[in-house]
Amino acid sequence: QVQLAGGGLVQAGGSLRLSCSAPESIFSIYSMAWYRQAPGKQRELVARITSSGSPNYADSVKGRFTISRDDAKNTVYLQMNSLKPEDTAVYYCNSLPTFLNWGQGTQVTVSS
After folding, report:
1. pLDDT digit string (tens) for 44-96?
2. CA 26 centroid distance within chain
3. Which among 45, 37, 39, 40 is positioned nearest to 95, based on CA atoms?
4. Cα–Cα distance, 56 to 78 (Å, whole number)
5. Residue 18 and residue 3 in contact, taking contact as beta carbons nearer than 8 Å
6. Where are the beta strands (DSSP E) in 1-112?
7. pLDDT digits (tens, 9 = 90+) for 12-48
8. Alpha helices in the chain (DSSP H)
9. What is the pLDDT at residue 52?
């Protein structure tokens, strides 16, 4: 139900951009969000954006990550700058509340 792109391996201090396309029936109505799950940890909310475009961030990524949405493309983005090794995780996209299948996510690995 979601199509993810981006992710990969980057050195600390580097940048990556994730993108997620979702069904219009969900995208046009609900907030969209990025989540991540690091090994041995629970999945956490990283950033969210309302249908009107208001963003909100977890304290751990505030000032480094930027969430945005393109309503014409039913796509939400996560620009990740100044990446740290602790940002290493599998990143997922979903609506908020979560209505979409989680899928496999996309791996982001930040080397020190």
Report:
1. 999 999 999 999 999 999 999 999 999 999 999 999 999 999 999 999 999 99
2. 16
3. 45
4. 12
5. no
6. 3-5, 8-11, 16-21, 31-37, 44-49, 55-57, 65-70, 75-80, 89-96, 106-111
7. 999 999 999 999 999 999 999 999 999 999 999 999 9
8. 24-27
9. 95
